[in-house]
Fold each of these.
Amino acid sequence: MENKRKYWIFDKSQKELEKYCIISGFKKYGATQVMKWIYRRKIFDFAEMTDLSKSLRKKLANNFCAETPKIVDTKYEEDSDGYSKKYLIKLLDGETIESVLINYRNRKTLCVSSQIGCRMGCVYCETSGLGFIRNLTSGEIISQILVIENDIENKITNIVFMGMGEPLDNIVEVEKSLDIISDANFIAVAPRKITISTCGILSTLPNIENHKYKIAISLNAADNITRSKIMPINKKFPIENIVRLINNRKPSIHNKITIEYVLIKDINDHIENTKKLIKMFSPSKVKFNLIPLNKEKKSIYLKDLETSDSDTITDFKSKLFKAGFTVTIRFSKAQSVNGGCGQLKAEKIYSQ
Ligand code: SF4
């Protein structure tokens, strides 16, 4: 990204900045110094980076822009355990994206977006209804963390790629952002505290596996007919491919994959589905996260879908649990701030 013929510093990897320093006649280490100022100290004015030579500071100011995106709207919800805050963030080109902070029991988890809109077409997802606009750059992914850490004056402890967009559909920029997010010198969130959630793009999943990030796969059905109806990606990567990938994982990888299952009334919540899931997976390889459909009342896109009854949710959980699986139910902490991905942006668009 360029701004008035200047490069946006947040889009540059460490290697790219090192190359820039060397070509410009400075020491390679200048790149690490600049990035520490930006990502650790949150200093975005090159003139204030006092351990850099004056000539490097001047050169950087001439060639790079370090303007951060702006928070344009928020929704806040508090309960006895903590709070959730949803952010609508305006990027430098005027597009908006969402991030959600979930601050519970000393854990500050940030749900980041990886695309503006999404082309995957999952029928239970508000972002899908917005269509696909474009991929985010690595800097746009990272800057969600920076602006929210500045807002809360504290550090984010966990990152989940579960906001707008499919991270594995934007793998190059997502991987580039992860290099900076997980680097102990920079944003310093350990790989084991980063979760990549995918609808099941299996072709690029190994890129993520190799770095030991946690993986969540949205399954949402126990048979291909149902899954293809609610998740078009199933036609390309059907359930049996997901099962094979999980069962063939190297024994050295200890992290269990999380199987996400959005419970939608009369679509995928029949108790028979638990029998199929128990047959497919082993408790040693996966754990389940059941997610009652988060349906914002004003939603146009989700109008025909209903959340499963609470008894059905409890039964579903109990069957999987009795078969030996770890099962959690994620009642979205951000439910009342329209916490489903794309809901705050959708609300803005639909109310115009
Ligand atoms: S659930 Fe995720 S992959 Fe599916 S449409 Fe929504 S953002 Fe895209």
Amino acid sequence: MKSNGFRLPTYMCLAWITVLASCGKPTPDTSTSSDAETRDSVSQVITEVLTAEQQAKLTPDDVIRLLQEGNIRFTKNDLTARNHNEQVRKASEGQYPKAIILSCVDSRVPVEDVFDRGIGDVFVARVAGNFVNEDILGSMEYACKVAGAKLIVVMGHEHCGAVKAAIDHVEMGNITAMLSKIEPAVRQAAGDKTGKLSSKDPELVHAVCEANIDNTIQTIRSQSVILKEMEDAGAIRIVGGIYDMDDGSVQFLHPEELPGGMNQ
Ligand SMILES: [Zn+2]
């Protein structure tokens, strides 16, 4: 297994060098942009946070594109420089995030960095195996219906320990009940396979990961009237993606349904 090779310390150094280099220079004007994260060059340091007006102008497809673009920057080790102190202060006045992303807890999946997002930009819900329960559905309803987020991303990842443990039927403390949420995806992906299932089968692991994401999306639609109605009305979109540990890219599922009809 190859680990994520992106060096955040290098980025942090770049951020500080850029902060120092921009001392005394005017702050980049992002006020006319629909996205506070928009930048013209790497020399800019983002100090703003998303406003209610900017959030209101975004469509769900706009948000998908912004996340795709941010992910490309992540894969190129070209994360946006941000002045976190400034952003913290400005975000204390309110939050108007673009999206809510449901991820696994895996320490190798740094969600905000994966999409090059900053403070006040996305909600992140995390649970091993990225499934939903009542609490996470409530969090998604809050993010979209109350706080105005336009997109729900259910993001699984390659080499997921929770998926592998579900395949291997691990039983241990509260982990047993947790893995039962992934079990339907194991049964679906296994199909008519006979014999003992094993997490040493990489194709099976990938298939369970994908089935688990699709199941989670179907559960969101079937167990949240609020989110289903918002999706049907075009106010939000609900999409799935898989984070690739080897190159840092996120491959969205069902790319034919994406703006432009493809992954980047
Ligand atoms: Zn995982």
Amino acid sequence: MLKIGTVIYEPTIVDGFDMNVYYSKRVDGVLGKPEKAMYNDITCFVDAKAIRENPDLLAVSPNGPATRTNKKYTLPWDFVCPTNKEYRSHVLDFIKETAKTDVEGVTLNLFHFPEEGFCTCPRCQKMHKASGLDWLDWRAETVTVFLRQARKLVPQRFGIEIWPDPVLAKERFGLDFDAIADYVDFFHVPLSANNYVTLYWVDTLTQDFVKLLKKPVFIELSAEIPRPVETKAMLRAVAYLSRHNLEAILLLVHDAERAKEIARTAVNDSNYRGWLEKFGFENMNKIIDKWDSIYGK
Ligand SMILES: [Zn+2]
């Protein structure tokens, strides 16, 4: 059955949601405490704090380092080179500690190369040469091996967040989806946006990933949307997504209150519910019924 869940910045399980994903290691490098009964989302090779303390960690390319200020690229963060042994161990240790507690699952994000052209630091060049592999295959192998190591540490459900690029993922990030599928239980694809008033791309990318990926798919939508008209558009997007063969639809919220507000908005909107009934959104109606029993007036 399709799950509805949250991706949330506070360690709170929200009533009426089947699963909750909590960022326990964030892009700023802050380490949270592993949270029981939640999926713990661990940021791997983006770590502002570690890079501030040791700029040598940065991934590099012929066009300069993997930083936001390098305008040859449009990177949203500064990236650590994924072959740095010490840093890798630090991340794997955190994954291991997380899995030792009673978490429901572990999700890794930003566990790959920052973009095409990375990383050409002396260590990566040496490792590439020694591998005898083609450059793109070496990068993909490097990422897959890291995931295989992490997988071994996690008896719970284990998966990854991926950038929503179904075509160039290997060239850009070193993601070989088929090879990775052997080591993960799910793929988590964030389709982040300021609003979902325009929807075709959500549907297109979801279709692409469901066909392409050999493991169950979670789709994440941004739900931290202030205007009511945008919340309604987002709820329609959730309904359309509910027709695809997904394991879960996840809503990104800052806190539990926002998730509850969305559920209340949905159950109390008779237009929306009439529209769901009329067009036979069976999975979505089940979610709404569950929310209604908790949040209905
Ligand atoms: Zn490197």
